[in-house]
Design brief:
Methylamine Dehydrogenase, Chain H; five-stranded mixed beta sheet; 2 helices; 29 strands; 3% helix; disordered N terminus
Length: 364
């Protein structure tokens, strides 16, 4: 599937409340400090090159504006693997899905491996894990065998698996439910629904219709709504307007499961009443823009100029400072990350690894 922004993205990890697994580990172990010995910064996941076995995890010290080398390589003397898809910080541990290597790595906060979970189907076929969300002492992750799996964070065992639909991607938890984007990759991104899984029974209860190709963005906002971006049908100038499905941010009420359109968007991240949005259509690059959306008034304010970006690939917001991080990931070279204040003023720029795709903030 084509996408101007590439196929990896942020999916903000929401540490919500939902009942399920043994949560002793997450509630009794005190959190350790991140590897930079600061209490303010973020882990940076670099997906790496397809087939390159070069995914990395770095730590950015936001107080001193400095970034370290590959934490995983330093801690373990080996590479993270092929295509680091997602990164989740939950309690005392880090979790990384490595899609091309068909595994999930469980690490301490220094990225030292605690357990490697190899993922295969019943017939032994490697399974590609995708995105994660965490709640109630469990980490839930999607995989390209059409399932969501439940990992107990105390025993580090997969304790359940539920079929949800074709090529599930980003997911989040809200109101005792998991919301899972169904992209229908084999149908060229023709999926038009979000699967809903009841956490307590760990069963799929229904699908919610959304716009075509819900993919890399699914998170629970500060207002408790579920936000989903559907990438649309990659509209072309030759298409009649009536056939074009533009990339769109939608909002799901987790109480009623009703859906409403919010605005056009490709990537989005939430901070309080603001939604920071990157938007571009693959065949309409002249329309690319970055703006802030006021969720109370609906007002849109231009945020930064994307003309200097080659390929914006991820966006994140520091929950403590409100600073916004935007990664530019040109093909074949390391990414550049630019840090802006809430008004869009550039504060700092740093170089990260290849194809930066996720920022996971530490605020203790």
């Amino acid at each position: 599937m084509k996408n101007y922004w590439y196929k990896t993205a942020l999916a903000a990890v929401v540490l919500g409340l939902c009942a399920a697994c043994n949560d002793d580990d997450e509630e009794t172990l005190p959190p350790t400090l991140p590897p930079s010995e600061t209490t303010h910064g973020c882990y940076v996941l670099n997906t790496g090159n397809w087939g390159g076995n070069d995914a990395t995890i770095q730590y950015f010290d936001a107080e001193n504006f400095s970034i370290g080398g590959d934490l995983f390589g330093s801690a373990n003397g080996t590479e993270l693997g092929d295509l680091g898809q997602d990164l989740c910080l939950y309690g005392s541990k880090l979790y990384a899905t490595v899609s091309g290597s068909s595994k999930l790595e469980v690490m301490d906060r220094d990225c030292k491996v605690i357990k490697t979970i190899s993922l295969t189907a019943d017939d032994g076929t490697p399974v590609e894990p995708r995105y994660m969300t965490a709640c109630g002492g469990c980490v839930y992750f999607t995989a390209y065998d059409g399932t969501v799996s439940r990992l107990d964070t105390a025993s580090l065992e997969v304790t359940g698996r539920v079929a949800v639909g074709d090529h599930p991607e980003a997911l989040t938890n809200a109101n005792g439910k998991l919301y899972v984007n169904l992209s229908d990759y084999y149908g060229n991104g023709t999926g038009k629904s979000v699967a809903v899984v009841d956490v307590a029974s760990f069963t799929k209860v229904k699908e919610i219709p959304v716009k075509q190709n819900p993919y890399t963005v699914c998170f629970t906002g500060d207002d408790s709504y579920v936000y989903v971006v559907s990438n649309g049908n990659y509209a072309t100038p030759e298409m009649p307007e009536s056939q074009r499905v533009y990339a769109t941010l939608q909002r799901i009420d987790p109480v009623t499961d009703t859906v409403e359109d919010v605005c056009r968007a490709t990537y989005a991240v939430n901070h309080g009443n603001k939604m920071y949005i990157l938007y571009s259509e693959y065949y309409f690059p002249e329309e690319k823009r970055a703006f802030a959306l006021d969720l109370q008034t609906g007002a849109e304010t231009d945020f930064i100029d994307l003309d200097d970006f080659s390929s914006p690939n991820a966006i994140g917001v520091n929950p403590t400072t409100g600073d916004v991080y935007v990664a530019d990931a040109p093909y074949g070279v390391n990414s550049t990350v630019r840090v802006y204040d809430a008004q869009g003023n550039l504060k700092n720029t740093f170089e990260a690894g290849y194809s930066t795709s996720k920022f996971v903030f530490v605020t203790e």
